[in-house]
Specification:
Number of domains: 1
Distance between the termini: 26 Å
Radius of gyration: 14 Å
CATH class: Alpha Beta
Number of strands: 6
Number of helices: 5
Strand order of the largest sheet: 3-2-1-4
Order of helices and strands: EHEHEHEHHEE
Low-confidence stretches: 112-127
Length: 127
């Protein structure tokens, strides 16, 4: 069965994406800064008969991203879809670590881990 990882999935667009993927038969990992905030989304996913994996994730930290990816792969064995719906509100400019985390997500290494190439701009730019 296919699996997906949706960041920022405790409410709003992230939760809607996670639930849509679950309805389409995907096992879904969902993340948030505080995984306790994912209880409602996880309950709705599992009610549809697929597995859910709540994951703590801080997109401002490369170590947190790597840890989350390890947890997702351990839970499902593979990753077919990545939906990044998380935001990191801040009054300050992005840190060097956050810039590095974004660069990692669009790198060949991430494509190797997920088996997918990340498309930005609706597919106009491919990394």
């Amino acid at each position: 069965m296919k699996s997906a990882f949706v960041t920022g999935a405790s409410y709003g667009i992230g939760a809607a994406c996670a639930l849509a993927l679950a309805r389409d038969g995907f096992h879904v990992a969902v993340s948030e800064l505080d995984p306790k905030n994912l209880a409602d989304t996880v309950a709705k996913i599992t009610a549809g008969g697929v597995r859910a994996a709540p994951v703590e994730l801080d997109l401002r930290s490369l170590a947190s991203i790597e840890r989350a990816m390890t947890e997702v792969l351990a839970a499902f064995g593979q990753l077919d879809v990545l939906v990044n719906s998380a935001g990191a509100p801040s009054a300050r400019p992005p840190s060097l670590e956050m810039t590095g985390a974004v660069a990692y997500l669009v790198s060949p290494q991430a494509a190797y881990i997920t088996g997918q190439t990340l498309l930005l701009d609706g597919g106009l730019t491919s990394y």
